[in-house]
Amino acid sequence: MTYVLNTERERREMLRRIGVEKVEDLFQDVPAEHRFPDLELPPPVSEVEILQELRFLSEQNADLDHYLCFLGAGAYRHYIPSVVDHILSRSEFYTAYTPYQPEISQGTLQAIFEYQTMICELTGMEVSNASHYDGATAMAEAVIMALNVARLKRKKVVLAPSIHPEYREVVRTYTQGMNLTIVGDEDPRGDLAALKGLVDGETACLIVQVPDFFGRIPSLAVLRELADAVHGAGGLFVVSVDPISLGLLTPPGEYGADIVTGEGQALGAPLNFGGPYLGFFACREEYVRRMAGRLVGQTVDAEGRRGFVLTLSTREQHIRREKATSNICTNQGLVALGAAVYLATLGKHGLRRVAELCYHRAHYAAQRIAALPGYSLLDDQPFFKEFVVRCPRPAREINEDLLDLGIIGGFEVGNVCPGLDDCLMFCVTEVNSRDEIDELVEALEEVGS
Amino acid sequence: MTEPLIFELSSPGRCACFLPDLDVPEADLPPAEWLRKDLPLPEVGEADVVRHYVRLSQLNYGVDIGMYPLGSCTMKYNPKVNEVACRLPGFAQTHPYQHESTVQGNLALMYELQEMLKEIAGFDAVSLQPAAGAHGELTGILIMRKYLHDQGEVQRNKVLVPDSAHGTNPASTSMSGLQVVEIKSDARGNVDLEDLKAHLDDTVVGLMLTNPNTLGLFDEHVEEICRLVHEAGGLVYADGANLNALLGIAKMGDLGFDVMHFNLHKTFSTPHGGGGPGAGPVGVVAKLAPYLPGPIVEMREGPCEACGSEEGELCFHLVMPERSIGRVKSFYGHFAVMVRAYTYIRMLGAAGLREVSENAVLNANYLRVLIKDTYPVPYDRICMHEFVAEGRIEGAPDVRALDISKRLIDYGFHPPTNYFPLIVPEALMIEPTETESKDTLEAFAYALLKIAEEARTNPQVLHEAPHNAPVRRLDEVRAARQPILRWKPGAGQ
What we know:
The complex is a heterodimer. Chain A has twelve helices and 15 strands. Chain A is an alpha/beta fold. Chain A folds into three domains: 8-55, no CATH class; 68-78 and 350-448, Aspartate Aminotransferase, domain 1; 82-342, Aspartate Aminotransferase, domain 2 (3-Layer(aba) Sandwich), CATH 3.40.640.10. The longest helix of chain A is centred in the C-terminal third of the chain and has 38 residues, at 333-370. The N and C termini of chain A lie far apart (58 Å). Chain B folds into three domains: 6-57, no CATH class; 81-346, 3-Layer(aba) Sandwich (Aspartate Aminotransferase, domain 2), CATH 3.40.640.10; 357-478, Alpha-Beta Complex (Aspartate Aminotransferase, domain 1). In chain B, strand 4 (204-210), helix 8 and strand 5 form a beta-alpha-beta unit. Chains A and B meet through helix 1, helix 2, helix 3, helix 4 and helix 5 of A and helix 1, helix 2, helix 3, helix 4 and helix 5 of B.
């Protein structure tokens, strides 16, 4: 069984018309000794069987429908309104491709135009592109853009130590051939304010994450000082944000950001074991021609009606080839559409409400856990929906015991910060009810001794 | 037939979400100046949202509506079982940082997919991490660069790219800090061997080759090309965008390629999502395996301390290859896309995959033969899964490829890729895929022939096309000259 439609008879008629005898004759250009190799693959299965197989495989996992979960660290479980997947399942959306033919792609184009607008509103920026692969690659593209804004004359990048460790790694992967000096993140628990001292005339950009990897909200005064320092040195200030936190917190546009990136998975995408997620990317208008990725712009049709097209594509690889701002082609269109539907559904008040629920419930959880014997909070700084707890036993053991009680515990901080093997970072969102939090607290008490 | 923007549907006080009540004491919020004053998102009800986006969907054309012969994009039918599979809660509701012992199902699937992709393309190792084709290219070039550096060949800084290549090839090269050198095509659409030889020296990292190339032609000297590049100390990268022609037909590894990216969203039927997400796994020969981005999945035999698997049990773990170029994105790749591709490969098996490529190639050749007397095909030989025709019609000098494309919309078809590859004037790059029937191909050819007739008798109807689309031709120049990239309150329609 395949999804091919041609019947045997039709195939014969087509071959005759082409002027060859059999289908193998179409492959004469392939070197004979390598033609038609055997593929050793498992035997094909029916739809019934594959779904049985996949159900079996998927049930080997401990999924979050069956376990309580307090794990975050860059991938978050939030409430996804039913509307979102309903819209994403419209095959007019998901079976289309990049809207190269705007006259029959107005659905995608307008939705992305709306998405761009919402990302601008959230971040306080002037322009947003149509998406990157994820928060990490969006940050790497921000670095490349900052280098280009500096016309490749600046070779230094300052990274806050409290940026997601995988994002910092991706920045280094992307730029490994560019002879950059990347500094600032040697000690993952290092002081944010100290970054000022690293900024100089060589600095293309300084990047911070808000809230940071450990859930902390940096002081607005410190963020403004960092923005001033890097602007004073002629570089760009880049901020990576959790978009849910922007339901509550001051948008980076108001404290000096030139580029705002982030992981948009929280905006309506399931956890999906890490992907596909959504990199969002917004910046000040003056840099738009250095921006990577697709951009949708408004225009008019031949009858003067409003319509939308891909625009400023002279930045892009299909026009500029090696001089393009990036190589990105396929992006995260459908996930961006999902984010737009999510933000429309939550709206002005809903997103604020979600952010508040996260905030209050996380603080309730933190307060209760910190009151348990042997547990304490590592930081005394304001936080949003995540916080690090020092445990009375190694974090790994606590997590193992929690799992036996049906709870997927926190992120084991020691995996990224040497010396913090007794620390767990918990994430609490609007989907974790008070009952769930209380269950976690009781479990922690039980497994703490 | 225009739809208001969601912002224009906003009515203060409306809300479409149902959130839980606050059931814990309120904590003190951060200082007031840390809090945003306003959040200008739309205020709409659930029915508003649903109707708005359903109406927008109706302005779109997708593979589920009709033939979408966008060259090099492999717009094949997306099986519905894939959509069911990737939404199974056991997959969708798992967190990437869960302990490995709790996600053995996911890791087993990823491992099997790595194995199947290795077998299909003849490579020794695969990383599933890259997010898209271009991302796979960047990955591949970084792997080549780092491998050569480790060999002490630090002077190698050039990548050869044929003039027929996708724009992503040169863009990926310069993103990795290397220089692009363009190689010419010969009169039969192959890489020009003389031009290639002239550029091969010890500054060359390697060659990026799309095979079949963007003319839809299988390079007749592919083995020799690989041999020449290897002799010069370089490596050969295969752009797997056109792999739909070669499933069970030839393995890239056997032909001499060292690295290749797969496009799961092209070859393996996962949907294109209106621009993405796709997935761009990368396969390599053994000597490059330590350089893959990761983590990738490794199979172990129990007993295993890490996950508690017992003697005789198999278990799966995430490992970072030894000399890895590093992560190319967070986590492990587009897992939900992998589930779809896995489903597809398992359902088709080896024979089914070969049938896919045979019919993709058969369909392209049939269509080529049906239209070539009217639309010149510059490199007119048996093609693979796609071909490039010239959108120039005798007796209609003012008609351009774009006019033909826009007129095809009126006939109910998505246009082919326009103006690419750059080496063919007025290019119409046509890839029907295996999931179109003989009848549909004939209807498409009939439309093209009819359009050629119209071009001679009534060219205006082409210049003004489309006539039946939700909007008429859009002013792209205006969009670029006076960019409006977001809605602003009071902007009006």
